[in-house]
């Protein structure tokens, strides 16, 4: 094995960054205009370009994905204290946004192929107090959007998607952000497409345009009119420029990651005890993460493999461990009994996300695969 790599730390991802010189050119426009934020021209240009990229009718930019999700839930006007069925296999922000809206997260198990909320188990959790379903397209794997839509129609529930990991993903040729009532994308630095911090909401309903505009801007409609109880969710001009420049780079990054994925797949699918989750046929990959599942037949556990990588200065991620139902704030939630959530409690100890970014070199990839092969 190549010992040089032991000195260079390898992380699970590296942020996509535009050329500094190009960034500086755009900064000059901003300096000249003296408009730094409040829905300026860079912001508006990014919003309209994202409508095309994400194949959605409406996009509202936000200063991060969490505030966007918080606002999405608020915009649904769900009865205070009502229940929202969601997944524990997600980032903390998902259930926290439900709780911050004064609603109760009810945790549903995941299904083993895509690791998304198990649509077959949702109906069992519906009560007269259920108001919405919040699914997460985890690692870019799509929730069963068609089944969820049927359930939502039957019980008159709103459907919200956390699409933080699913930038540019399409289901049956449609932008993933067109499913459900509203979807959130995160543009955090770790995401395939980033604005350093940032995010957006996508939706089909024109009635939401003004509502979300108000909620994102303190409820302020005009100089002397405050229409709603809003928050500050605005994305500024400087980060909008990063977004405009990264929009030119993300598909090239996806192509590079596709090659890395093929390489990992070819090396790792031969190894007993390593399962590689597959994207459903009708869905395009966002290339956000490369998760593998360490099964019982593998000679060492996920945690042991994680430590082994770390000893070589390779920082994989136990993404998601702990799961949300392990957190102090949710573990006493009535829906959280381990025997009610068997799949997710099994997967939390088995999933490992491997380094995945376009500039990973072939010898680094070989080294990473070599560590698993040696085990
Ligand atoms: C699934 C998921 N939801 C929500 C968020 C929150 O997004 P942000 O960091 O942009 O606030 C993240 C991650 O960052 C995430 O991974």
Low-confidence stretches: none
Could you give the distance between the termini?
A: 14 Å
Name of the CATH class of the largest domain: Alpha Beta
Q: What value does the Rg take, in angstroms?
A: 21 Å
Q: Mean pLDDT score, rounded?
A: 96
Structural class: alpha/beta
Spatial arrangement of strands, main beta sheet: 2-10-9-6-5-3-4
User: How many strands in all?
Assistant: 16
| Estimated helix fraction | 25-40%
Describe it for me?
This protein has helices spanning 20-33, 41-53, 65-75, 93-100, 145-155, 207-216, 237-247, 250-268, 302-311, 342-347, 362-374; strands at residues 10-11, 58-62, 83-86, 104-107, 130-136, 158-162, 170-171, 174-175, 182-186, 199-203, 220-222, 225-226, 274-275, 290-294, 314-315, 351-354. Strand 11 and strand 12 (225-226) form a beta hairpin. It folds into 2 domains: 3-12 and 251-374, Alpha-Beta Complex (Aspartate Aminotransferase, domain 1); 20-247, Aspartate Aminotransferase, domain 2 (3-Layer(aba) Sandwich). The mean pLDDT is 96. With 375 residues, the protein is an alpha/beta fold. 43% of the residues are buried. A 7-stranded mixed beta sheet has the order 2-10-9-6-5-3-4, sandwiched between helices. It is globular. Pyridoxal-5'-phosphate is lined by residues 64-66, 90-91, 93-94, 136, 162, 164-165, 186, 188, 199.
């Amino acid at each position: 094995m190549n010992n040089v790599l032991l000195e260079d730390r390898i992380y699970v991802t590296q942020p996509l960054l535009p050329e500094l010189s190009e960034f500086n050119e755009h900064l000059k426009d901003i300096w000249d205009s003296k408009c730094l934020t409040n829905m300026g021209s860079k912001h508006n240009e990014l919003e309209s370009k994202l409508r095309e990229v994400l194949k959605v009718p409406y996009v509202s930019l936000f200063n991060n994905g969490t505030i966007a999700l918080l606002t999405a839930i608020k915009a649904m006007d769900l009865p205070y204290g009502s229940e929202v069925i969601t997944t524990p296999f997600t980032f903390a922000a998902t259930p926290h946004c439900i709780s911050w809206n004064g609603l109760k997260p009810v945790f549903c198990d995941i299904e083993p192929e895509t690791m998304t909320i198990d649509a077959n188990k949702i109906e069992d959790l519906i009560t007269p107090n259920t108001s919405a379903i919040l699914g997460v397209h985890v690692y870019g794997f799509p929730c069963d959007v068609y089944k969820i839509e049927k359930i939502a129609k039957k019980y008159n529930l709103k459907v919200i998607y956390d699409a933080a990991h699913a930038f540019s993903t399409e289901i049956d040729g449609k932008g993933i952000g067109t499913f459900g009532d509203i979807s959130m994308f995160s543009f955090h630095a770790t995401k395939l497409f980033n604005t350093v911090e940032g995010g957006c909401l996508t939706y089909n309903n024109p009635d939401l345009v003004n509502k979300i505009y108000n909620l994102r801007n303190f409820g302020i409609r005009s100089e002397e009119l405050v229409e709603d109880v809003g928050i500050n969710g605005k994305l500024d001009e400087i980060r909008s420029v990063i977004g405009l420049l990264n929009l030119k780079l993300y598909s090239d990054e996806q192509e590079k990651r596709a090659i890395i994925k093929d390489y990992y797949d070819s090396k790792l699918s031969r190894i007993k005890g390593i399962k590689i989750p597959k994207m459903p046929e009708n869905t395009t990959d966002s290339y956000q993460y490369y998760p593998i599942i360490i099964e019982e037949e593998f000679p060492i556990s996920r945690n042991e493999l994680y430590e082994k990588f770390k000893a070589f200065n390779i920082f994989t991620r136990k993404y998601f461990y702990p799961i949300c139902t392990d957190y102090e704030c949710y573990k006493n939630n009535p829906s959280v009994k381990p025997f009610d959530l068997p799949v997710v409690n099994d997967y939390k100890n088995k999933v490992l996300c491997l380094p995945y970014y376009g500039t990973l070199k072939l010898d680094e990839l070989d080294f990473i695969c070599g560590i698993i092969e040696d085990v």
